[in-house]
Design a protein that fits this description.
There is one protein chain. The protein has three helices and no strands. The protein has 72 residues and is an all-alpha fold. The longest helix is centred in the C-terminal third of the chain and has 26 residues, at 46-71. The mean pLDDT is 86.
Length: 72
């Protein structure tokens, strides 16, 4: 059985949701997202705006990944 289709009991579900790796990933995603937002206001450079948007999108994707891993 693959990891994605596994059905957890309630106690296993709580243990899986409380794994530190999920919260580390969420913290990293918030830091990356905030860095992207702050860089957006740092300068009027077009290249810096592109980099800040990419960082923000990466942060959002990682954040969604962490949240859905917890909810699974």
């Amino acid at each position: 059985m693959s990891e994605e289709s596994k059905t957890y009991t309630p106690s296993e579900s709580v243990k899986e949701a409380n794994q530190p790796a999920h919260y580390v990933l969420m913290t990293i995603s918030v830091i990356i997202g905030i860095t992207g937002v702050l860089l957006r206001f740092a300068s009027e450079s077009h290249a810096l705006a592109i980099v800040s948007n990419i960082l923000f999108i990466i942060g959002v994707i990682l954040g969604f990944k962490a949240v859905f891993a917890i909810l699974k």
